[in-house]
Task: structure prediction
Amino acid sequence: MSLANKVRPGRDVVFRELGGETVLLNLRTGVYYGLNETGAAMWSQLVECRDPARVLAALARDYAIAPDRLARDLKELIAALTEKGLLEADEN
Amino acid sequence: MVRSSWVPPPHHPGELDRVLLALCSPEATLPPRWINPETLLARAAELDVFPLTFHRLRRSPHWLAGKVSPEWEERFRSNAARNLLLDTEQERLLNLLKSAGVPALPLKGTRLATQLYADLALRAQVDVDIYVSPERLPAALGALEADGYRRLTAVGLPAERLAATGNEFTSECSLEKRAGPMPLLVELHWRILPLPPKELEPACEKGALPAPVDFLYLCLQAAADRWGTLKALVDLAHWVRRQPPDWEKLAAAGERLGLARILGLTLHVLLDYFELAIPEAMLDRLDAAAAARLPRTAVANPFAPLPSLSPAATHRLRWVLRERLAHRLRYAAFLLRPTAGDLAAAPLPRGLGFLYWGVRWLRLAGVVDAGREREPALAGVCR
Result:
């Protein structure tokens, strides 16, 4: 998984902050996922700018976490969400 | 506060239920340390207040992270995702109905969760409830069926069979859609209160009932289960605490709609379980609508399974809860007409549909099992 490829939320995905976490739901498949505070921050940035590399840079400014660790977490999240159909490659 | 003589005595919850009640109350008192969270959550799930209980317990210092089964967290998230699905579907259906020229209004459900708890995830729900103007009911049904919904009745019979009895006293219709990952259930309501549809038109435009009417609607919902559903009582308690009603307007609306008795009884029941600031003058005023002492069984125990009443006791209770002669006569007319339960009790070919009138009498007399039928305690009042 590279951070160079742009991504976007799946076409049928809705999300909202519920019960203290951000819940993502794919309306077509019924797959849902709960994100903690850091995951929610990654998600909201991904939704906004779609560019994982820029998201990583923004998160590095906001969080006192080692860049390597942050990059690994972001890659893992993108991979997990893509596998679940909650995130997809942005061809545009 | 002196308890009015017409109100049945209160039920007394056991220790675990008292802890649960305190946690679910608007002030959310945290449980003592000796309480096992697993036991409390299981009880909350049983009484349909799991999401609120889990959310509050999780934020308390008593929460033993890692020592509570992760299944509870999954259950909470699953409910949140389901509510998100229902909320999205509700929004979509309201737009669909609007496009079909049907005035519509969301009832209870996700709107209530947001209004009372400021969070969609904190209330359990299974369906989407929508009010539609009765004149536009055929258009509403047509729009939903064209969208893939299939009509059901409350007992799962095709609506056509129900229609064959000429039963125009029904007030809601269930529809189901199975195309997606989870079956979606929608209930269309076209008579929700003893209000002419004209009075509900502005509410449809605004997207919400006027506050006093909305509160009375919740009181009716609670009364339909004889105040025996904890979730309904918790909702009402949060309403009273979070957005105290304009008591004067509420009493006036109750009196105008012939619901003062139900409103008064609801408030008395709420005071049995919650610390709420309800003016005594308000209760005194509503007590005036009470005709006679209600039987002990009028108010069920929300912490114990609803005891089933005999048909005679059920009808007596429904009769007594109605304040107006017109409502009682309407109820009598409703009683004598065949219902969906009669159809389920004795399936007959369409040509013999007239025999359902006899089946109705037999079921009223208790000769044929009436226990499978679930009619709200106030069936007929809102019609």
